[in-house]
Design brief:
single chain, about 650 residues, alpha/beta, Substrate Binding Domain Of Dnak, Chain:A, Domain 2, Rossmann fold, six-stranded parallel β-sheet, about 10% strand, binds iron/sulfur cluster, binds Broken Fe4S4 cluster
């Protein structure tokens, strides 16, 4: 459990040093919570009304119903549904804000933003039915922004990205099951209404809502966030960078940007390159300014601008505990309250910027698009002015920082797999069909002290690639694998099985491809859809030899992601179950019966090697059903040891 499984050397170094100085971290607080409430873990505690809280006795000797009569099945399913709605709302509200930025660009009321991918602007605008000929970028931005925002309020129609992009068979299944989502806001509101006391009590009906609201996110909100981010900040291209706490510099002003929205981080990166500010930083005796990202903010600016990654979710406090960070600027999601306490030990200033995410004890600077660049410069100036307060005797910057390649997308995988002259998914599908590549696995999600503190992702990906499974990644899982060298073609290719190695060497890609942030899981949906369109390895998403995992899931957003993949026909493995184990009926329904409903299902497995083989077995069953060729190389390549960080 927790601390002992942490493998990242940089994190261990900081933790050990600061523990001896009495500084607390998330691992200490997690340990202090043990043993955690068994009713909560099993999902059989209900707080939905003021007759409760009620709990169901899991041993069958105590109460089997809440005061209102709710059973374990209702309580577990209702809570899971509500959590999934919260996760879907988080991604989708992020998308809404990006839509507003697009409109503001159209109206010319922004500072520091422009359309960086006018080509994609036209492609997406045309998809939304907007006439693009002879229109300027700002005109199209305004029209598309308004059109995108309409998706949120649709009452009966489905979202455009879903109805235009999802494979026909999936759409038929969703219609038959009555889970075809309408507008994002409608689905979130209706799901919350259904989970109110005295509303939906049938667990199957509740799970129907869970799937509907998650589909509204995956094929709607998250997909909109990805597309609009590409338009605004540029579509990613493969790019080299570095990851881990060693990207911080002893002799520079260190600024960390943390959260999820590229709107803030992108303009801070731009402002940090201002010659006046660099000059000012040098006048303070530094060599310049380093900006590094954390969590999905890191992924957003990594895949587009090659900005170094300081770390993932569990490294937010640790980055401050280096004593070398002048400011940490945060926006929304996955920002732990613990950072304020970590900062209190050092000169580090934490600055919140979103009205939706206020943190007690930290300075707030309201960040708005109309004065974004000025605000970003002001924030950087605060960091520069704070540098003289750094106590150099307290600084510990671990040397670990690993090279990586990131910036793959559903569109540019075409190019890399097919080469310049036959840019298509054909080479991928052919290599799956002929048995060089077994299939494709998504390894995504958070890092969690309950699990391996990130290490599960690394073990899982190593096992998958050595068994010739091509891996696609997003979120903090991608960052963890980057820190261990799995996103570097030069090192990771040697860890892949023979067939996958041949393909990766020929194409020049790592066997694990970094596709971006959490909302960019929508890129995986699109890539799978392209595989279906290309043909030969399944006529619908549920037939493809693919699987997904978020072993160290933590956020409710991960539940939304997992559910939209299950509803789209995929196997999804979480390391620890959602809070449903107290209801055998709900557990069996999502892990067994679901396969006959959507073609997808859930599995829960903490051991990353066993999880890898659950995924491999699932992929093999799909291969068998499709009558694909036997695997070309049956012997797995054996990976020895842990890849050393530099
Ligand atoms: Fe208890 Fe029912 Fe109220 Fe839940 S909704 S707290 S089970 S009375
Ligand atoms: S940041 S949701 S801890 S992946 Fe997207 Fe990481 Fe999970 Fe947050």
């Amino acid at each position: 459990m927790s601390r002992e499984k942490l493998k990242d050397k940089a994190s261990i170094k900081i933790l050990e040093a600061r523990k001896s100085e009495g500084m607390e971290t998330i691992w200490d607080r997690y340990e202090a919570q043990q043993p955690q409430c068994g009713f909560g873990l099993l999902g059989i505690c209900c707080r939905m009304c003021n007759m409760g809280p009620c709990r169901i006795d899991p041993f069958g000797t105590g109460p089997q119903k809440g005061a209102c009569g709710a059973t374990a099945d209702t309580i577990a399913a209702r809570d899971m549904t509500r959590q999934t709605a919260a996760g879907s709302a988080s991604h989708s509200d992020h998308a809404r804000d990006l839509g507003h930025t697009l409109i503001a660009i159209g109206k010319g009321t922004v500072q520091g933003y422009s359309i960086r991918d006018p080509y994609k602007l036209r492609i997406i605008a045309a998809e939304y039915g907007i006439k693009v000929e002879n229109k300027k970028d700002n005109e199209l931005a305004l029209e598309l922004g308004e059109r995108v925002l309409q998706e949120f309020g649709k009452q009966d129609d489905s979202q455009l990205t879903l109805s235009k992009r999802a494979p026909k068979r999936q759409q038929e299944i969703w219609k038959k099951l009555d889970i075809f989502p309408r507008g994002i806001d409608r689905e979130v509101v209706e799901t919350l209404a259904r989970t109110h006391e005295g509303m939906d009590q049938d667990y199957k009906n509740l799970i129907q809502s869970t799937m509907r609201v998650s589909l509204a996110d995956g094929w709607g909100g998250s997909m909109i966030a990805t597309e609009v981010s590409d338009i605004l900040f540029g579509s990613p291209k493969p790019i080299r960078a570095r990851a881990n706490l060693g990207v911080l510099k002893e002799d520079e002003v260190n600024i960390i940007i943390h959260g999820h929205e590229p709107t803030l981080s992108d303009v801070i990166v731009t402002a940090s390159q201002d010659p006046e500010l660099i000059k000012l930083a040098k006048e303070k005796g530094t060599k310049g300014i380093t900006v590094a990202g954390l969590c999905c903010t890191a992924n957003e600016i990594l895949v587009r601008r090659g900005i170094p990654v300081a770390g993932n979710f569990l490294q937010q406090e640790l980055s401050i505990l280096t004593g070398a960070v002048e400011i940490m600027v945060v926006d929304i999601q996955c920002v732990s309250p613990g950072i304020a306490q970590a900062a209190s030990h050092f000169h580090t200033k934490v600055i919140s910027t979103s009205a939706k995410a206020s943190i007690p004890g930290v300075e707030h600077i309201d960040f708005r698009e109309d004065n974004a660049l000025d605000t970003a410069k002001k924030i950087i100036k605060i960091a520069i002015d704070n540098y003289p307060n750094r106590d150099k005797t307290k600084v510990i910057i671990p040397k670990e920082a690993m090279d990586l390649v990131a910036g793959f997308t559903a569109e540019n995988i075409f190019y890399h797999l097919g080469g310049k002259f036959r840019a298509s998914y054909k080479p991928l599908n052919e290599n799956i069909a002929n048995g060089r590549i077994r299939g494709v696995a998504g390894v995504v999600g958070c890092d969690n002290p309950r699990m391996g503190s990130g290490s599960s992702h690394v073990a899982l990906v190593k096992e998958l690639i050595k068994n010739n499974v091509l891996v696609v990644q997003t979120g903090c899982a991608a960052i963890e694998c980057a820190k261990e060298g799995l996103l570097t073609p030069e090192t990771a290719i040697e860890m892949a099985g023979e067939g996958l190695k041949e393909v990766c060497k020929a194409v020049g890609i790592p066997p694990a491809l970094h596709l971006g942030s959490c909302v960019d899981n929508s890129r995986i949906l699109i890539a799978c859809t392209e595989m279906v369109k290309e043909g030969g390895i399944g006529k619908s998403l549920d037939e493809l030899p693919v699987a997904g995992a978020a072993l160290e899931w933590m956020a409710e957003k991960a539940m939304a992601i997992g559910w939209y993949f299950v509803a789209s026909g995929a196997l999804v493995v979480f390391g620890t179950p959602m809070r449903i184990s107290g209801s055998q009926a709900v557990y069996d329904y999502v892990t067994k019966d679901m396969e006959n409903i959507t073609g997808g299902k859930w599995a829960f497995e903490e051991d990353p090697i066993k999880a890898a083989h659950l995924m491999i077995d699932h992929i093999d069953r799909k291969r068998k059903a499709l009558k694909l060729a036997p695997m070309m190389y049956t012997q797995s390549y054996t990976v020895t040891g842990h890849l050393p960080s530099e």
